[in-house]
C-alpha cells in the first residue's frame, strides 16, 4: 500500500508547557478530524504534516519525529492573519452563511496564501511520486493546486469538513476563483453531503464555466472527482470510553444529582454556527409554557471553549451566559436550576457518561458541516432509549432521518419538538433509535477512510471519455472497407457545427454548394440511407434541403421527413408545453440584459442564442441563466441543454438518440452505421449506438463518440472519401469481398 501523507492545519497533538521549567508535554488533541484520522496514521508508515501550535523545543521535535509528525513553522503574526484572519473571519462565516460576520481583508488573504505555500513546500519536500496525499479542510484550500505544481504526478485528495455553500453565497468571496482553482489541484474532493457536492459543482460551472458529468470534471488534462462522503465516528473507541468503569462512576454520580428529572443534553463548541442563543430561547419558550418541565427537566449544556482570540466568539460567549443567567433567574428554584451550563471541556469518559444519561440530545446548529455529536449520541444508545432532536441545517440530518427534525430559527416549533421528545414513549424511541444506531455503527470512521482512499486510488474506474482525435484520411481508411461491403448503410449527420461551420448569425448558416453536393451524392448512393438529424425547426430544414434527396429529422427528433416526402411526421405523443409560458419571459429578460442574445421558438423547445453577444458577458449570463432555469424547472418535464453558445430548453423524452433508434428499428437492421455530431445533443445518439457502429465527434472535448475529427472541413473531407469508395463499388457493380 502507498504511504499516506495527512495534512491538516493543526497536528493531532497539542504542545503544552510543563509548569516548572521549560519542559513541554505532548497531548493528543480531541475533535472529529483527529479521532477520524489517528487510526489511519497509526496503522501505516505515513506522515502527518501540520502546525504544532506552540514552537516545539528540541526534545519535543524528537518526539514529534518519532510519531511521524512534521511541524510546519509559521511566524506568529502570519499565522494569526491566516488562521484567525482569513480562515475564521472570511471562509468560516461565509461557508456557514454568516455574511455579517465576514471580513475580507486582502492582507489576510495574502497570509492565507503564504501559509498554504509554506505547507506546499513542506509537503513537496517529503512527497514521493507514489505517495497518497490527503489534505484537510478550509484552511488549506489553495494547497491542492500548489502541491500539484510542485509534485505533478502525485495523487492528491482533499476533504472539506465544513459546508460548501450555495454558489450564490460562495460568489460573494472576493478570492472565489483562486479558491476554486486551488481545489482543482486535487484528484478527489470529498464533502459531507450531496447538497455540498452539488453546490461546489455549480460554483465550478458558474464561476469557471467548467461542466461536471456525474461528479467528474476535466481540468488541465486531468480528471477531478467530487464526492459526498460523510465522515463517521470511531464507535469502538467512543463506546469503550463511554462504557468504561470511569464512565459508570460518573453516571452514577450524575444520576444521583439529577434525580428523576428528564435530561436534555447539548454539547457544542462555543461557536456562533452552533446556534446556542436560539437553543436557549427555545428552552425558555418550553419552560414558559409548561410549569411541569420547570421542575422535572434540566438542560445540561456543555460549551467547549473555542477560538478565544476572535472577538465575535467573546460576544457569543457573553450572549450565551447572559441568557443562561436570565433563564435560570426566571425559572430556577433553591437548589435547582433549569440549565446547568459549563464552559469547559471534559474527558471522554465524562462525555460518554453524559450521552448515556441524556433522555434527549438537543443538537441545533444554525449550520454545521456534519455534526459528530449527533452521531456520538446515537452510538451510545444501543439501549434504544434516548431521542435525538436534530437541526435540519446539520449535514448529519441527511443520514439521521429518524431524528426529530427542527428548524432552529423556529423557536416555537423547536420548543414543541423538545417537549415531544421528552414525552416520547419507549416504543417510539426504540423504533427511531435502532436504525440510526446500526447506520452509525456500520458507517464508522474506518469505513469513511476506506471509502475515501479507494476513491482516491481508483480514479480510472469511471474515466470521462475523450475520443481519439484522428485525421479524416486515417478515419476514412478505417471506415472505407466496411462501408464498401455493407448491404445497407445508415448515415446520421448533424448539421450546425458538424457539416457546416457556425456563423455569427444563426440564420446565416445556409448550406454551401459543397455541402449540398455532398448531400446529393450521399442521397444518390445505392444501399445508403442518409439523414440530417438537426435541432433546427422544420421550416428551415424544408427550405434548405428540399432539393436534395436526403431524409430529415427536425427539432432534435420531434419531426421526421423521409427523402422524397413532403409531409413531416411527429414522433411520439404531443408534448405538454405549459412550461414555455414560464420560461419565455425569463429568456426575454436575459436577452434584454445581454446585447446580441436572441430567442428562437421551436414547436417543442425554446432556445437562447448568445453567439452574437460579447464573449465574456454572454458566457456569464448563460451560466447564470442555466442555474436559474435549473432551479425553476426542477421536476418539470423538460431538459436544459447547453450547447455551442446556445441554451436549449426542450421537452423531455424527445432527443436525437430516440429519433436515431426509431430509424434504426423501423428501417434496419443496418450493417454499417455512422453518426456524427459536435455537441451535447449528439451525445444522445452516441450513447444509443449499437455495437460495431461508428460515431464521430467534430471538435475537441469529452464525448462518448469512438473518434473525433478537428472541424466541419475534416468531416466533409471524410464524407467525400466515403462517397468515392461507395461510388467505386456502385460503378464496379460487385462489392469487394
Ligand atoms: C467540524 C465541522 C464536522 C466536544 N466537546 C468535547 C469533545 N468534543 C468533541 C465531540 C466531537 C467533536 O468534539 C466536535 O465535532 P463536531 O462535528 O460536533 O463539530 P466541529 O468541531 O465544528 O467539527 C463539523 C466535523 O468538523 C468533522 O468533519 O462534523 O460539522 O464543523 O467529536 O465529541 N471531546 C472531548 N471533550 C469535550 O469536552 N473529549
Span from first to last CA?
Answer: 54 Å
CATH architecture group name of the largest domain: 3-Layer(aba) Sandwich
What does the average pLDDT come to? Answer: 89
What sort of overall outline do the alpha carbons produce when their principal axes are compared?
A: elongated
Please tally the β strands and state the result.
28
Tell me the Rg in angstroms: 32 Å
Q: CATH homologous superfamily of the largest domain?
A: Glycogen Phosphorylase B
What fold name stands as the CATH topology of the largest domain? Rossmann fold
Strand order across the biggest sheet?
A: 5-4-1-6-7-8-10-9
Structural classification: alpha/beta
Strand content: 15-25%
| Biggest sheet overview | 8 strands, mixed
Number of structurally distinct domains: 4
| Low-pLDDT stretches | 733-737
Distinct compounds present = GDP-alpha-D-glucose
What share of residues is helical?
40-55%
Count of alpha and pi helical runs: 26
Amino acid at each position: 500500500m502507498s504511504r499516506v501523507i495527512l495534512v491538516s492545519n493543526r497536528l493531532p497533538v497539542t504542545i503544552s508547557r510543563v509548569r516548572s521549567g521549560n519542559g513541554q508535554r505532548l497531548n493528543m488533541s480531541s475533535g472529529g478530524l483527529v479521532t477520524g484520522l489517528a487510526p489511519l496514521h497509526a496503522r501505516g508508515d505515513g506522515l502527518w504534516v501540520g502546525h504544532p501550535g506552540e514552537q516545539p523545543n528540541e526534545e519535543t521535535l524528537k518526539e514529534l519525529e518519532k510519531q511521524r509528525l512534521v511541524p510546519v513553522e509559521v511566524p506568529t503574526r502570519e499565522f494569526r492573519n491566516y488562521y484567525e484572519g482569513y480562515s475564521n473571519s472570511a471562509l468560516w462565516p461565509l461557508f456557514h452563511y454568516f455574511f455579517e460576520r465576514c471580513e475580507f481583508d486582502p492582507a489576510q488573504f495574502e497570509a492565507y496564501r503564504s501559509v498554504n505555500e509554506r505547507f506546499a513546500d513542506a509537503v513537496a519536500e517529503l512527497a514521493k511520486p507514489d505517495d497518497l496525499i490527503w489534505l484537510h479542510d478550509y484552511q488549506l484550500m489553495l494547497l491542492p493546486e500548489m502541491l500539484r505544481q510542485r509534485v505533478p504526478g502525485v495523487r492528491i485528495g482533499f476533504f472539506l469538513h465544513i459546508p460548501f455553500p450555495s454558489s450564490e453565497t460562495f460568489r460573494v468571496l472576493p478570492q472565489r476563483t483562486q479558491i476554486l482553482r486551488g481545489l482543482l489541484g486535487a484528484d478527489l474532493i470529498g464533502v459531507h453531503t450531496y447538497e455540498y457536492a452539488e453546490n461546489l459543482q455549480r460554483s465550478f460551472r458558474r464561476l469557471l464555466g467548467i461542466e461536471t458529468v456525474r461528479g467528474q470534471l476535466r481540468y488541465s488534462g486531468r480528471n477531478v472527482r467530487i464526492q459526498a462522503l460523510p465522515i463517521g465516528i470511531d464507535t469502538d473507541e467512543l463506546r469503550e470510553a463511554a462504557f468504561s468503569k470511569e464512565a459508570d462512576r460518573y453516571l452514577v454520580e450524575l444520576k444521583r444529582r439529577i434525580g428523576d428529572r428528564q435530561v436534555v443534553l447539548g454539547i457544542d463548541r462555543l461557536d456562533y454556527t452552533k446556534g446556542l442563543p436560539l437553543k436557549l430561547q427555545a428552552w425558555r419558550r418550553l419552560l414558559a409554557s409548561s410549569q411541569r418541565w420547570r421542575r422535572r427537566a434540566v438542560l445540561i449544556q456543555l460549551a467547549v471553549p473555542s477560538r478565544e482570540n476572535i472577538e465575535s466568539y467573546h460576544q457569543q460567549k457573553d450572549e450565551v451566559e447572559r441568557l443562561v443567567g436570565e433563564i435560570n433567574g426566571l425559572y430556577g428554584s433553591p437548589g435547582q436550576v433549569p440549565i446547568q451550563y459549563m464552559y469547559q471541556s471534559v474527558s471522554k469518559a465524562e462525555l460518554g457518561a453524559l450521552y448515556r444519561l441524556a433522555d434527549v440530545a438537543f443538537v441545533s446548529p444554525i449550520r454545521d458541516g456534519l455534526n459528530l455529536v449527533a452521531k456520538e449520541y446515537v452510538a451510545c444508545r444501543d439501549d434504544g432509549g434516548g431521542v435525538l432532536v436534530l437541526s435540519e441545517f446539520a449535514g448529519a440530518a441527511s443520514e439521521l432521518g429518524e431524528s426529530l427534525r427542527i428548524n432552529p430559527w423556529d423557536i416555537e416549533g423547536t420548543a414543541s419538538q423538545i417537549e415531544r421528545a421528552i414525552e416520547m414513549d419507549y416504543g417510539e424511541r426504540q423504533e427511531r433509535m435502532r436504525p440510526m444506531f446500526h447506520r452509525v455503527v456500520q458507517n464508522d470512521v474506518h469505513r469513511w477512510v476506506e471509502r475515501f482512499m479507494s476513491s482516491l486510488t481508483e480514479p480510472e474506474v469511471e474515466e470521462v471519455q475523450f475520443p481519439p482525435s484522428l485525421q479524416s484520411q486515417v478515419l476514412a481508411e478505417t471506415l472505407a472497407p466496411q462501408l464498401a461491403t455493407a448491404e445497407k448503410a445508415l448515415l446520421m449527420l448533424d448539421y450546425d457545427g458538424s457539416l457546416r461551420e457556425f456563423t455569427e448569425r444563426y440564420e446565416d448558416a445556409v448550406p454551401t454548394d459543397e455541402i449540398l453536393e455532398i448531400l446529393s451524392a450521399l442521397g444518390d448512393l445505392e444501399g445508403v440511407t442518409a439523414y440530417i438529424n438537426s435541432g433546427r425547426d422544420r421550416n428551415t430544414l424544408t427550405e434548405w434541403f428540399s432539393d436534395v434527396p436526403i431524409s430529415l429529422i427536425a427539432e432534435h427528433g420531434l419531426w421526421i421527413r423521409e427523402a422524397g416526402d413532403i409531409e413531416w411526421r411527429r414522433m411520439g405523443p404531443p408534448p405538454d408545453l405549459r412550461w414555455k409560458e414560464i420560461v419565455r419571459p425569463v429568456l426575454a429578460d436575459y436577452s434584454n440584459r445581454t446585447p446580441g442574445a436572441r430567442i428562437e421558438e421551436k414547436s417543442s423547445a425554446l432556445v437562447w442564442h448568445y453567439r452574437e453577444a460579447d464573449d465574456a458577458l454572454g458566457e456569464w449570463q448563460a451560466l447564470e441563466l442555466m442555474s436559474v432555469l435549473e432551479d425553476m424547472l426542477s421536476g418539470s418535464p423538460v431538459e436544459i441543454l447547453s450547447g455551442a453558445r446556445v441554451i436549449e430548453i426542450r421537452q423531455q423524452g424527445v432527443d436525437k438518440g430516440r429519433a436515431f433508434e426509431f430509424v434504426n428499428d423501423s428501417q434496419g437492421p443496418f450493417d454499417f452505421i455512422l453518426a456524427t455530431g459536435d455537441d451535447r445533443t449528439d451525445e444522445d445518439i452516441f450513447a444509443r449506438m449499437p455495437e460495431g457502429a461508428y460515431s464521430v465527434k467534430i471538435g475537441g472535448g469529452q464525448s462518448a463518440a469512438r473518434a473525433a475529427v478537428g472541424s466541419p472541413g475534416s468531416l466533409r473531407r471524410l464524407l467525400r472519401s466515403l462517397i468515392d469508395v461507395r461510388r467505386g463499388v456502385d460503378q464496379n457493380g460487385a462489392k469487394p469481398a
